[in-house]
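Same chain as my last thread, 466 residues:
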Amino acid sequence: MSETWAPSWQDNWGDKPINGLTVHGGVGAIRFQEEELQRGEQLLRQLSTDLTDVVAVVNGLNFQLMVMPTYAEGTRGRAVDALHHSADRLMACSAAFEDTAHLVDKVTSRYIMAEMANTALLADLRVQSNGGLPTLNMAEPLMAVVLKDSRKSLGLVMAGGWLRPAPIEATEVGEPENVDVDASFEWLLGRTQSVNSADHGMLEIIEVDNGFGQPPTFVVSIPGTQSGGATATENPFDETGIVEAMEFDSKYMGDAVRAALAEAGAEAGDVVVLGGYSQGGMHAANLAADPELGEMYDIEMVVTAGSPVGNTDIPEGVKAVHLEHEQDIVPATDGTPNPETNNRITVGIHTWVETPNGEDAGLGPGHNLDNYMDGARSADESEDGALIGAGGVLAGALRGGQGTRHRFKLTREKPPKASFSVKSHGPKMRKYNGGLELNGQTPDPVRILPPSSGPRMRKYGMSPGD
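reply #2:
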């Protein structure tokens, strides 16, 4: 049974969890208010400039009054005095607006500096309280450094046929089935859990009947990583799928989902809701940001769980909810925290979980989908304003209580077998009694080892296991 993790009494923003959750982003969030302050500062400065322009107009009127005929001296004098008084008041207002804008800028800057210092202090305390192990928010800056160097070698890895994305074909399997629909984060993530436990390479699309002559909503659920090894396989959710999501914006996955949506009956302008766990959440976020898909359909919401999506630029018109467990470092593997904007909400889950005895720890208990289901349930029950608003968006998209489930088998075009071609520019070599022969002579075993006592070798290259 999960309980609030004592060392996690605050998250990296310094907030205390409420019912095991912290919420950042959405309307009313601190970052959103900071943006509003900055916009207010800009407006104040613009008003100050506009008032200065009005003063210039008033001074122009004063000049015209000064050249009026002398017989209107009394009237002119009173008008000039009134205009002078107005100009003084306007200049005072302009200066007040400028002073206020300066104070807003000063307060905002100090707030940002305090937040940075607070984040660093809390991060240090968290590492000490977590047995010296980094938590999610500590792993992000570390991964930013790691990824900077690792991406340089990705091209070489793909050149060898490993982790190389390729086109994906979507084929509907089985007959469509009726399912119950519930407008909740738990239900949405539960659909991902359902497809995640199905056969490998499966994608689910539910056509929600909204009734009353309203067009249907299509819910796309994408599973997490299904291990296949370093070499790309026919299953698009293998490790190569991670590379496609992180480095290629889910190009081929997007093509497959568009084809599956059309096969499921989706038409231009229909509402689409996306959900995904781990790798599936990365694909879901990329699809939410895909301009081609966004032009074709009305993408209302995307929900991710345990997914690194901080670098994904999700449009303002799409409401995004990101579930991240504090003990799960997977969301940190992109090295970037999620933006805290009006349309994006990050739900931090702060419950201590452990891997049951005898079970494989995998990527750690924090990444377990069952724990994210618990977090989604807590998000549904939360009284946080941002989550209530996001729940309203989801309820508006899923108005019907019934839907039709379609499942698709996704198959990746298998890339060529991994190998590095090596052109020989030296003496010819051939196999010799399980080893190698060099120009007809038995080679020195010290210089060239036979396969039984060294790395596996092939005549023209090396296997992926080398």
